[in-house]
Amino acid sequence: MIVPVTDEKTWVGQLVGLPTFNLGTTPMVVISPHPDDETLAAGGLIAAHSDRGRDVLVIAVTDGENAYQENAGLRELRAQEQEEAVQILGKGRVSIVRLRLEDSGLHKDVQGLERALEPHVSHGTHVIAPWTGDYHPDHETCGQAALEVAKRAGARLSWCFFWTWHRGTPDQLHNLDLHQFRLNTGLQQRKRDALACHRSQLEQANGEPILPESLLAPARRGFEVFASAC
Ligand SMILES: [Zn+2]
Q1: Assigned domain for 211 exists
Q2: Structural domain includes residue 26
Q3: Who surrounds ion ligand 1 at CB < 5 A?
Q4: How many angstroms is it from 33 CA to the middle of ligand 1?
Q5: Are 112 and 141 in contact (CB under 8 A)?
Q6: Cα of 40 to ligand 1 centre, how many Å?
Q7: Which end of the chain is more exposed for a tag (fewer CB within 10 A), N or C?
Q8: 97-145 confidence digits (pLDDT tens)
């Protein structure tokens, strides 16, 4: 069983009084290193922005094909699960671009990732990307590439978090401009329904699932956390 470095109660105590995140009205691009990251870290945000009639694009950077050692067919399965999840979050209005880069290999070619992200980011875009310190090489590389591309385009960039909640401590976030985005019960339910689509991560015939209960608590909070990067 995976035991978080900081327990969920401590996190919530630290995060609950944060100022409100400003969603804005501009088109949003959500960078998802692996299928399920978009839902876990920003599912409520995607749903809320799309409900307001704003454009949301999810960039699926990898298909998460290396999550298991026995991975025959996993690429297609996870891509399909992500399509279903995003369909629920966006009620059919959110599209996905698949980059099909190598799961667990993004650090080998950061510039290649930047080139792949560039066509989707412009001056008026709000980019949501994993924090550069999110305790997973693919997440951190996505954050670095997003920062470069957003700076070049003059786009707004906000960090989102997943592995930080399990491997990090509140001290490590002290320099970040953190905000919370509250989710009403409707948004919380849609996020739960979307999360349930990622079946390959929630149940596994042989051994522990990739996402055991202990990793899901932050995704069930009544808010999501973002930080303004630029
Ligand atoms: Zn991930």
Answers
A1: yes
A2: no
A3: 33-34, 37
A4: 5
A5: no
A6: 9
A7: N
A8: 999 999 999 999 999 999 999 999 999 999 999 999 999 999 999 999 9
